[in-house]
Design a protein that fits this description.
heterotrimer, A alpha+beta (478), B mainly alpha (362), C alpha/beta (417), B: Amino acid/polyamine transporter I, C: 417 residues, alpha/beta, GMP Synthetase, Chain A, domain 3, nine-stranded mixed β-sheet, four-stranded mixed β-sheet, 13 strands, elongated
């Protein structure tokens, strides 16, 4: 093998990119070639553990000697066609003149942000570390919680251009083996040019990709992922994304927050009921309000009727247009406050809340009851932030149903959407378990939460190696 | 289009029966019975629920003998293909006419109570897509959705009954209606009953594990007790003025219209009426589809759906849109159709049971 | 497009539903609120108007809530009226006057004029019982003057102070009548076995005529106490609504008008009546001589025992009253004892017993004279012994006259609070 020629070839394959670096040195009459990416390798390790030992080497250098000389811990022998791939992963590829054997030493390093508390799921009392964009760090964060041989990590590459590492993490002996196989097969079958974030996999792993329902779980904190893995779920760590996915997923998971597990169980029960009420308010609130206004004025309590009637007299729009207008206004404000830098966020909230809301009411463009109903619905949405996008869609749908068909339509719509959700079974897991089908033992940690020592079994909503978590007699399934 | 009718478990089965037991028996039936038979109307309800429970018992024995076979298979085995087709055609008529009756009763209620100014089509079009969706999604999805709504229904019905107890202001129980009149009332108003035919139709799709029959029986019993209680409360609260109050479960709540400044909380009972109506109609449609499958085995389910919707809409729009025809339909035509589950079904079931036993004996 | 059709094939119902919702949704965009299409009526008054072309006209007066664009959310009402050959026709004309459809589902009170009650109550009651919108808990009252006057007064009252007529009636019904004066109770009585329905009569008065002319002289009853205290001790100029008497109907026909004192006596026989006062004159005991003592009734429990003697029912009414002395008009005129430990002396007890027995006897007599079974003895007897009661009724020449044949025995027990 001719070193210089080989280096030229590699450089050409990488389109002579600016960060491709090469070194050619003579040691004891043997030419040694090194190729690496400047942007992805650790400078100190390269000079201290690879270049310096080689430069200091005395005597005749052959491949065996080379292997002994360089000092990084991750050194592998590779074939010629793997050179480019290894270079791209942050390794130094070393070859000798007149030798067919090639050596690759992994010295990958790039700057990452440290694990910090994620903005999406803060806790009052509980672990504050969150995943980062680097999968190795994420694996570390999970490993640190399982000092047991049962933690298994498997790797799959997804994306033809991006070649993204997807790590399947699960606990052997807890998880259902068939499930792991199924997920792996589904991942391998994915033909896509690239994956930028783990959300790409959410739709690709759903049994009904067109559905508006979220069918794969996600979390940004290792404690949540660890808890889900303990229940027999598979975690999917996607390189480049701080969001780790879990499969199988049931709707209930989004009702639970990690906070629930770090406080008193009675308080968590209360909070979960609040969440259910909030979801109902968010989805059905505006729809019910408009239905009552348009179709069933006689159902409204008299005092409330007076308030609504008095306050809507000045409004120039019909009730439906009015409430659509307010909803849209809120949605725009929300979108703006997300996009704007935080120092401008305050300004938008002042403009939104005070100027638009208050002045709008005073000017008679919108009526106070409608503003209140929409505000309640919009605030209630964020008690379950993971489902906020789905609930927002439902909010509009039910508003439309309420305005067009009234109360009968609203209840019909509810039946329709719940029946639809019931027909979704991603990885053979009923979406609304353990409520429908009703599973008694799983309801210990559903709407009601029992103390930890009473949750003796793994969830029965999905398949896992049903073993006891806590040494007590087991529950009953219905 | 393919319909996946996967099995349902004891809970879902029980809840579907729970819904069947309620539906249109809690709306106009109590006042009709009271009008015909005064206080003895109570005995009519108890008697008819006894019959329904007897049908469930019959089902229990049949299911024990034929754990995996469907009712159609049993019929084919006993009565040849012709017999099966004849029976199932009768069932088709039964479910379709029951659906029409139920729709009309609820329709008139909604028009009177909450939809005054809307077109008749609105209510029709509220119902049709939903019940079609439930029927297409299959029995399991229907069962699960019913299971999801079950706590709500149970809670509201219980609430209605508890509130209704406070409305009772008469303790008089009159027994002075002659037996022949009671019998006449029973026959005239038998139409809301006989829904138990449905459980025979879905016989092979029910998987009941050992020891879970008690769930089914207790759910059915609970429903029967609730309806009987509603009847009783209604009769005791509106002993002399029942003619003013046709909608039983709705009316027993109307005492609390001014409850705590909340205004009309009788809307709560309306929610449960709507829920029951949706599920009950969906059950009828599902049964219709399953029967259609047996009568015309070569046609797929789209044909049955289209047939049902077409006939249903035609009947509802052109024939039975007003109260008078509904009353004629419910009191003069339907009672003959109800003979199917109450007369034909026991005969069929007993023959099946009996013949099998004979064989075993040999 | 192909994708669209495959989706349509997979979930046809979804698209039907979407189509439906979209169709009605566009319609909903232009739909005004139902509140603006209906005139929300909170009170209805019916009068007899003059005859026209030989046909009797009815006048309907509607107290209607009219929404006003303002921030304070006050209830502003307006009175509308119209005449028609029937109640429904008058209602239709009134709705033309308002320019909106009439929504009766929030009715709180129905006012009937005396003229209507005396002549054509049937017609109006039939209209109400056929109307599904009107709640059966709606209060029904009669008035001495016209219903129109009554509702105008009620509106003034509501505008100037915040006395709601419906609240007024609710309060009064607990103290004055043995039943609440609602549509349901009226019908229940009328169609029940006794066929007796009660209806309260209220009349609008201006403050100068506050002392009531006929029905009551010294004790005014709780109704006026209330209006007096909240009206600002007589200094205000507004009109007020006063309690006067109770109309008793049998089979929908006016039979007798009971004044407040007569009603009170009748109420002594009925179980429902719990509050009020008794005045006993000329009591002499160790505490006072020749005193007029007023007792407040705290509780009353009644026990009815039925027995038959020679086929004639005998009803034993045992009444026990819990009393407290509330006012003494003595010669010395001042309290001397510890008020908390005040015991009703045997002399006073006897006097009260006599008084109560007399009242009850008078109440029963009132019922007997007019053949109105307000206390519902019919049901009592029917529940007690069906066959014996039936035999008893069969033995009578006029079964309606059963009250006069029943023997009543009254016992009274007094408990001090």
């Amino acid at each position: 093998m001719q070193v210089k020629k080989e280096i030229e070839q590699i450089k050409q394959k990488l389109h002579n990119s600016v960060d491709v670096a090469d070194r050619v040195i003579e040691i004891g009459g043997t030419t040694v070639g090194l190729v690496y990416l400047k942007s992805m390798t650790d400078n100190a390790i390269f000079s201290g553990y690879i270049f310096e030992p080689l430069a200091k080497f005395e005597g005749e250098l052959n491949f065996e000697e080379l292997k002994k000389t360089i000092r990084p811990n991750d050194v592998t022998e590779i074939k010629e066609d793997e050179i480019v791939k290894n270079v791209l992963k942050g390794a130094v590829v070393i070859f000798l003149e007149n030798s067919e054997q090639i050596l690759s030493a992994d010295i990958l390093k790039f700057n990452m942000r440290p694990p910090s508390e994620p903005p999406t799921s803060p806790v009052i009392m509980g672990p504050r570390e969150g995943f980062t964009e680097d999968y190795k760090t994420n694996i570390t964060l999970i490993r640190r919680r399982f000092h047991d041989e049962n933690l298994a990590l498997e790797s799959v590459l997804v994306g033809e251009e991006t070649q993204t590492q997807v790590i399947l993490a699960y606990l052997d002996g807890v998880v259902d083996k068939k499930l792991v196989k199924k997920i792996k097969k589904k991942l391998e079958d994915i033909k896509i040019d690239g994956i930028v974030d783990s959300y790409y996999l959410v739709t690709l792993l759903s049994s009904r990709p067109n559905s508006f329902l979220k069918q794969v779980g996600s979390a940004e904190k290792p404690d949540i992922i660890a808890a889900k893995m303990l229940e027999g779920r598979v975690a999917l760590i996607v390189d480049g994304s701080p969001i780790v996915l879990t499969i199988p997923f049931v709707f209930l998971e989004d009702l639970q927050s990690s906070n629930d597990y770090y406080t008193n169980y009675l308080y968590s029960t209360l909070i979960r009921f609040v969440r259910i009420v909030a979801i109902l308010l968010a989805t059905l609130g505006p729809g019910t309000f408009i239905a009552l206004q348009l179709f069933h004025y006689n159902v409204l309590p008299f005092k409330y009727l007076i308030t609504i009637a008095d306050s809507t007299q000045q409004v120039p729009f019909t009730p439906f247009i009015e409430i659509l207008f307010i909803l849209l206004l809120f949605q725009i404000l929300y979108e703006v406050s997300l996009r704007l830098p935080s120092y401008l966020g305050l300004a938008t909230s002042v403009v939104g809340a005070l100027i638009l809301g208050d002045t709008g009411v005073k000017a008679g463009l919108i009526s106070p009851p409608a503003v209140i109903v929409v505000a309640i619905a919009k605030i209630a949405l964020y008690t379950v932030p993971e489902q906020s996008s789905q609930i927002t869609i439902l909010q509009y749908v039910f508003l439309l149903i309420g305005a067009s068909l009234g109360l009968l339509g609203l209840i019909g719509g509810m039946i329709y959407f719940l029946a639809y959700a019931n027909s979704v079974e991603n990885f053979d897991t009923p979406y609304l378990a353990p409520f429908s089908p009703f599973i008694l033992s799983d309801n210990k940690d559903a709407l009601f939460k029992v103390p930890l020592e009473e949750m003796t079994n793994l969830p029965k909503s999905f398949k896992n190696e049903n073993k006891e978590r806590f040494d007590e007699s087991s529950g009953q399934e219905h | 289009m393919r319909v996946l009718d996967r099995n349902i478990n004891a809970w879902q089965f029980g809840i579907l029966i729970f819904i069947l037991m309620f539906a249109n028996k809690m709306l106009v039936l109590p006042s009709l019975l009271f009008e015909g038979a005064k206080m003895q109307g109570f005995f009519i309800v108890v008697f008819l629920f006894g019959l329904e429970m007897a049908l469930l018992g019959l089902f229990f024995y049949l299911k024990k003998q034929y754990p995996t076979e469907s009712f159609a298979q049993i019929l084919q085995y006993k009565f040849k293909n012709v017999g099966k087709v004849i029976f199932y055609t009768l069932f088709l008529v039964f479910f379709l006419s029951k659906a029409v009756l139920l729709y009309n009763v609820t329709y008139i209620f909604f028009r009177n109570m909450i939809y005054k100014d809307t077109s008749n089509f609105l209510i029709l079009f509220c119902f049709l897509p939903i019940i079609n969706h439930l029927a297409i999604s299959g029995l399991r999805v229907m069962g699960r959705t019913a299971q999801l709504f079950f706590p709500v229904m149970l809670l509201i019905v219980t609430f209605c009954i508890v509130v209704g107890f406070f409305g009772i202001n008469s303790t008089v129980i009159w027994f002075d209606v002659p037996f022949i009149k009671i019998l006449g009332t029973l026959l005239r108003h038998i139409a809301p009953f006989g829904d138990m035919l449905f459980i025979f139709i879905i016989m092979d799709k029910v998987v009941i594990k050992k020891g879970q029959w008690k769930i089914v029986f207790s759910l059915t019993g609970t429903a029967a007790v609730f309806v009987i209680l509603i009847n009783l409360i209604y009769m005791l609260s509106y002993t002399y003025t029942s003619f003013m109050h046709p909608y039983a479960i709705f009316e027993i709540m109307s005492f609390v219209r001014e409850y705590g400044g909340l205004g009309r909380i009788d809307i709560i009972s309306m929610i449960v009426i709507i829920l029951f109506a949706y599920f009950h109609l969906a059950i009828y449609l599902k049964s219709f589809m399953l029967c259609f499958e047996q009568v015309f085995p070569k046609l797929n389910c789209i044909y049955s759906l289209v047939t049902f919707n077409f006939i249903f809409v035609i009947i509802v729009i052109f024939f039975i849109i007003n109260l008078e025809t509904t009353v004629v339909f419910g009191e003069q035509i339907l009672p003959y159709v109800i003979v199917i589950p109450y007369l034909l079904l026991p005969i069929i079931a007993v023959t099946c049971l009996f013949k099998k036993r004979k064989k075993e004996g040999k | 497009m192909k994708y669209f059709f495959t989706q349509l094939y997979k979930t046809p119902m979804f698209f039907v539903f979407v189509l439906m919702v979209a169709f009605y949704g566009f319609h909903a965009l232009g739909r005004t609120a139902e509140i603006n299409q209906y005139a929300v009526v909170t009170a209805v008054g019916i009068d007899m108007a003059e005859e026209e072309e030989g046909e009797q006209l009815y006048e309907v007066t509607l107290l209607t809530f009219i929404p006003v664009a303002q921030q304070s959310f006050t209830e502003s009402y307006k009175v509308f009226n119209a005449k028609g050959r029937s109640v429904s026709e008058a209602m239709d004309l009134a709705s033309l006057n308002i320019g909106r459809e009439i929504g009766l589902s929030h009715i709180k009170i129905i006012v009937l004029s005396k003229e209507l009650i005396e002549n054509g109550l049937h017609k109006f009651l039939d209209y109400l019982s056929r109307n599904v919108q009107v709640a059966s808990s709606t209060k029904v009252v009669a008035t001495d003057s016209t219903a129109k006057d009554f509702l105008t007064t009620a509106q003034n009252l509501d505008n100037e102070s915040s006395i709601k007529v419906s609240e007024h009636i609710m309060y009064n019904s607990e103290y004055i009548y043995s039943t609440e004066s609602s549509l349901e109770t009226f019908f229940k009585g009328t169609f029940g076995p006794t066929k007796v329905g009660l209806m309260a009569c209220l009349s609008p008065k201006s403050p100068d005529e506050q002392t009531m002319p006929t029905a009551a002289s010294d004790s005014q009853g709780a109704g006026e106490e209330k209006s007096g205290s909240s009206g600002g001790s007589g200094t205000s100029t507004q009109d007020m609504i006063t309690q006067c008497h109770v109309y008793v109907f049998k089979e929908g026909e006016l039979v007798v008008t009971l004044g407040e004192r007569e009603m009170k006596k009748v109420n002594f026989v009925c179980g429902d009546y719990t509050d009020g006062s008794i005045q006993v004159k000329n009591i002499s005991d160790k505490h006072f001589t020749n005193a007029n003592v007023t007792f407040e009734i705290f509780g009353k429990s009644m026990k009815y025992n039925v027995s038959y003697q020679n086929g004639i029912p005998v009803i034993n009414i045992d009444t026990s009253l819990t009393l407290r002395m509330s006012e003494v008009e003595d010669e010395t005129g001042m309290v001397k004892e510890n008020v908390e430990l005040f015991v009703i002396s045997p002399e006073a007890t006897k006097a009260i017993e006599r008084k109560v027995k007399q009242s009850m006897a008078e109440g029963i007599n009132t019922m007997r004279e007019n053949q109105v079974d307000i206390a519902d003895f019919y049901t009592l007897l029917y529940n007690n012994n069906k066959q014996a009661f039936k035999n008893f009724l069969d033995s009578l020449e006029d079964p309606e006259d059963y009250l006069n044949r029943i023997v009543f025995k009254i016992g009274v027990r007094i408990l001090a609070k």
